[in-house]
Write a structure and sequence with these properties.
The chain is an alpha+beta fold. Helix content is about 40%, strand content about 25%. Strand 3 and strand 4 form a beta hairpin. Helix 6 packs antiparallel against helix 7. The longest helix has 30 residues. The protein is elongated, with a radius of gyration of 26 Å. The two termini are about 45 Å apart. The relative contact order is 0.16.
Amino acid sequence: MTVESKPKEGIYIYCVIDFKEGDPEKNFGPLGIGERGDELRSLSYKDVAVVISNSPIKKYPVCRENCLPHQRAVEAVMKEGFTVLPVRYCTIAEDETQVKKILKRDYERFKDLLLKMENKVELGLKAIFDEKLIYQDILAKNKEIRLWKEKLINKPPEKTYHQRIDVGRMVESALNAEKEKAKTLALRTLKGLAEDYVVADNYGERMFLNASFLVDRNKEPEFDKKVDELNERFEQGLKLKYVGEMPPFNFVCLEIDLDVEGVELDATD
């Protein structure tokens, strides 16, 4: 019988943060990945730190059960008031000495990125439509489609098959036009208030916009106001789902080279 050996213990890296030089290391609670209750803590070098926890050195499968703890750990750190640079999922060092060497080697890179992300938050916006309401709106606006529907309503489907297909295509085209119009309006209204923005793939048939915006906190009230104005301006069948104050996951995903050969620490490190 073969007994599998336990993975070696290592250090999981969640994010890079700004840190006041000379302050004691910070403990964020038992939020580590892997459901072991490992403490989430800082490890600093000068005025930059990484947030880490103990973890087996292994490949964590990409799944909700693993990705959510990684994400929630970064969110918890941000709620403490730190500027955060999310690190690529499943970045695991051998020990704290290796992590210290990474901090020393990449200090300038981390510092520059932290300055760029200072006082910035990610705001998410998803736009969906109510299929029934938007369909009614299309009929009300489009006289040609409405007249065709009225002509076909009392006729046998088997005798009007091709006409019904044509009407269906007309409705689909009108729906796509409405979605594109709303998407363009939302982006045009909001992107001017953002440092950057990304549009991701939609999921689900009812979604027509899935966007994230990197916004300076000083402009967040104005951004919130514009979202409210868009909601009022859109027709009843179009709704915005707005999520605020997130770490910049869609704008920063640090890849860290774990090879620290040649990096030496001295007594002051």
